[in-house]
Every structure is written in structure tokens, then in C-alpha cells.
Design goal:
- With 306 residues, the chain is an alpha+beta fold.
- The protein has two domains: 175 residues, no CATH class; 125 residues, no CATH class.
- The protein is 50% helix and 8% strand.
- The protein is built from ten helices and seven strands.
- The strands form two sheets. It has a five-stranded antiparallel sheet. A two-stranded parallel ribbon has the order 1-2.
- The longest helix is centred in the N-terminal third of the chain and has 35 residues.
Length: 306
């Protein structure tokens, strides 16, 4: 008898935990450097030394991200049958010597290089060809990072962030990565001893402002549904929440619909619409005319309107 058979939900949960762990590593370096630049000028040599020191941990985050991808695909296979994950000849299977059953984890699992092929064999909807290319590239990078100390293997924190956004979009197209990240922060180990999550919304806003600022326009459209050709406004809610953590200017909200009399701002971090009034800002030097109804601030300059 085979026991301890995993479920698809368990694989999904483990996969997302790996994605969050990898994200946590790389975003911490990006925020640290940004914070340092906010205090004083960081010259090119110091920044280069910073990233060289972080290099091994960033490679580790890449390895973790790849593990997450493998777990996510395994979850899709288990949704059909968990036995699709078992590899090897029957003669090589572990034996139930004491009659209590054999744990599923004792069986040899199929190789990572075969996961996409097996998935596309048993699922009516095949994995996107773009994902297959990305998966193979990521698998090879992971193998190099795991089995060599090649100094030419250079993966940046931005590269890992983009990979995580990419694979999450492919594997969980109907889910919002910002919401997933927020859930992990709200349920982190620290919350069970400090019982405080007031900072989470501000931290999420800061993380995704940092990411938003280095992504290309096509990437912000794909991952966050924000057209960079539109005028960007401060999200009043993210601004309010960030002041509890670290004051920032979360200028990534857009009018929706994009019309001169539109009365709503869309924020991808909040994943919601915020009502606005279309009237001139009370600040003489500000040309803005988008005023938050909820927070009574100008979404152009960020000053209180009243």
C-alpha cells in the first residue's frame, strides 16, 4: 500500500512558498540598495561591490524559484493522478518490509526535464510554448548554479524578479502575485510572535513601486495591466499605508477608463478602483485635477486638498 499521497493543493502551496522565499531574498537587496541611495550617494564601485557580495544569495534565490516551478507543475500532474510522478522500473520500487505501507516520498520521482512533456501528454491544455522555453532556460541556469562555481554565471536581482513574475503568470494566470505576496507577509512567522501586520500594506507598496520602476512598459502592461503611456498618479491608499512603514510616492495608478472626465483611479497594488473628484488642486503650483474622495489628497502632488 502507498500512503502519504500528496494533493495538488499541497504542491501548489509549497510552490508558492518557494516563489515567496525567492522573492523575499531578491527584493530585500533591491530595497537595501534603494534605501542606501536615499541616505547618500552610492558610487559605481560601491554598488558593484554590493552586488558581488549578494551574488551567491541571488543565485540561491534562482535555485529556489526553479524548485517552485517544478512543484507547481507536479501539482498539475497530481490533479490528474499522483502516480504520474513515480518513475523507474517496478523492480526498483521500495519494499513494504513491515506491512505498514510505503510513503509516497520514498518512490523515485520523474526527472525535472520530463515534467513539461508529461504534463502536455496528460493535459488537454498544454503549457504555453513560451513557458517551455523559459522553463528549460531556468532549469539549465539552476543546474549551473547548483553544480558549478562559474564566475561568469551572472544573474541579477531584477532577472530573478522578472522570472518569478513570468512563471507565476504562466502557471497561475488567474491569480494575482501582489495578493499572494501580501498574504505571505500577513501570515509570516513574525506575525505569530509580534501580532502586528500594520506595516504590511506599506511594505507591499514599496516593494512593487521598486519593481514597477525598473520593468519595461510592455512588462508592466503584461503583469500589472498598467499602460505606461497613460499619465501616472499617486495611489491615495498606498500613500496612506506607506506612511506607516516608509514614506514613498506610489505613483503607479491610472485613470480608468482613460478619459478626461474619468472618476476612478485603478491601482494594481490595491487591485481596486479609487473614486476621485475632477477638480483643480488647491495648491497653486500644482496643475493636478484628480482629488481622492476617500483621502482628500491630490493624486498628482500628494498634498491635502482641504
Amino acid at each position: 500500500m502507498i500512503k502519504d499521497i500528496p494533493t495538488s493543493e499541497e504542491f501548489d502551496s509549497a510552490a508558492k512558498a518557494q516563489f515567496d522565499f525567492a522573492w523575499d531574498i531578491v527584493i530585500s537587496f533591491l530595497l537595501t540598495l534603494e534605501e542606501a541611495k536615499g541616505y547618500s550617494e552610492v558610487d559605481e564601485d560601491d554598488e558593484k561591490a554590493f552586488w558581488e557580495t549578494a551574488r551567491q544569495r541571488i543565485l540561491t534565490s534562482l535555485i529556489i524559484a526553479q524548485q517552485g516551478v517544478e512543484l507547481a507543475i507536479k501539482g498539475k500532474l497530481v490533479a490528474i493522478s499522483p502516480y504520474l510522478l513515480i518513475s523507474g522500473n517496478h523492480s526498483d520500487w521500495p519494499k513494504d518490509n513491515d506491512g505498514t505501507g510505503i510513503s509516497f516520498s520514498e518512490f523515485r520521482a520523474i526527472d525535472a526535464q520530463d515534467l513539461v512533456k508529461v504534463h502536455d501528454t496528460v493535459h488537454e491544455e498544454k503549457l504555453d510554448s513560451g513557458f517551455s522555453v523559459l522553463f528549460e532556460r531556468l532549469r539549465k541556469l539552476r543546474n549551473k548554479a547548483m553544480h558549478t562555481v562559474d564566475k561568469e554565471l551572472n544573474v541579477s536581482a531584477e532577472d530573478v524578479v522578472l522570472i518569478l513574475l513570468d512563471v507565476h503568470e504562466y502557471l497561475y494566470a488567474n491569480e494575482n502575485w501582489v495578493a499572494t505576496r501580501r498574504d505571505f507577509l500577513n501570515n509570516s512567522a513574525a506575525t505569530h510572535v509580534f501580532f502586528d501586520t500594520d506595516h504590511v500594506e506599506g511594505l507591499v507598496a514599496k516593494e512593487f513601486l521598486t519593481v514597477f520602476n525598473f520593468l519595461k512598459p510592455a512588462e508592466t502592461t503584461r503583469f500589472f495591466k498598467i499602460d505606461r503611456k497613460q499619465r501616472l498618479y499617486l495611489c491615495p491608499e498606498c500613500k496612506y499605508e506607506s506612511e506607516k512603514y516608509d514614506s514613498i510616492e506610489p505613483k503607479y495608478a491610472v485613470l480608468r477608463p482613460n478619459e478626461s472626465d474619468s472618476e476612478y483611479l485603478f491601482c494594481f497594488v490595491c487591485d481596486s478602483l479609487h473614486p476621485v473628484e475632477r477638480k483643480d488642486c488647491s495648491q497653486d503650483e500644482c496643475p493636478g485635477n484628480v482629488i481622492s474622495v476617500e483621502y482628500d489628497v491630490c493624486c498628482t502632488c500628494g498634498k491635502n486638498h482641504g
